[in-house]
């Protein structure tokens, strides 16, 4: 399941969150999702009663987005709650947020991630369309950094693009793009082939032979192209 942690302290000097935070485990089977009262009892024991409904609604909606968009981690710090004068409701503001997405879910969530980055969602002006084409109000696709900070090769980008469009796992890593094979390396030399005689059927023609000249084996075509391997 997923753990929801809620701490009543925030900011840079929050300290050991795991030790201070109230915790609630959300089961994998969402039929057993906790009720509003269970969420409030587990996470909001130090919050005034009048603010429970607002915060429970915020936590529930936030978790729904977390699941729907395939997040693997989401942290809001600080979360600012400004109650009204009667302390019966409040305005909720998140000032900073850090999150991680599951890259393997791009084939089913890529459109959702792009919509979340659209000009309308970000509050930025949309560039007018002047060529008459119909466009979708969506932002740029999510780009994940290459492993270890290196740039992907053309072949790796091609496979990564295929991987993003299918539920299958397609991976390619070119370890030595400038490597060359030659006779100096036995392991890198192209495989050789030595023909071996095979018995002829009874109805096949035979070659004239002598005691010192054995019959030649059937000729086979030998490939001159070395084997290639992608790694």
TrEMBL record:
<feature type="compositionally biased region" description="Low complexity">
    <location>
        <begin position="203"/>
        <end position="213"/>
    </location>
</feature>
<feature type="compositionally biased region" description="Pro residues">
    <location>
        <begin position="188"/>
        <end position="202"/>
    </location>
</feature>
<feature type="domain" description="ATP-citrate synthase ATP-grasp">
    <location>
        <begin position="2"/>
        <end position="113"/>
    </location>
</feature>
<feature type="region of interest" description="Disordered">
    <location>
        <begin position="121"/>
        <end position="140"/>
    </location>
</feature>
<protein>
    <submittedName>
        <fullName>ATP-citrate synthase</fullName>
    </submittedName>
</protein>
<dbReference type="InterPro" id="IPR016102">
    <property type="entry name" value="Succinyl-CoA_synth-like"/>
</dbReference>
<dbReference type="InterPro" id="IPR056749">
    <property type="entry name" value="Citrate_synth_N"/>
</dbReference>
<feature type="region of interest" description="Disordered">
    <location>
        <begin position="179"/>
        <end position="231"/>
    </location>
</feature>
<dbReference type="Pfam" id="PF24948">
    <property type="entry name" value="Citrate_synth_N"/>
</dbReference>
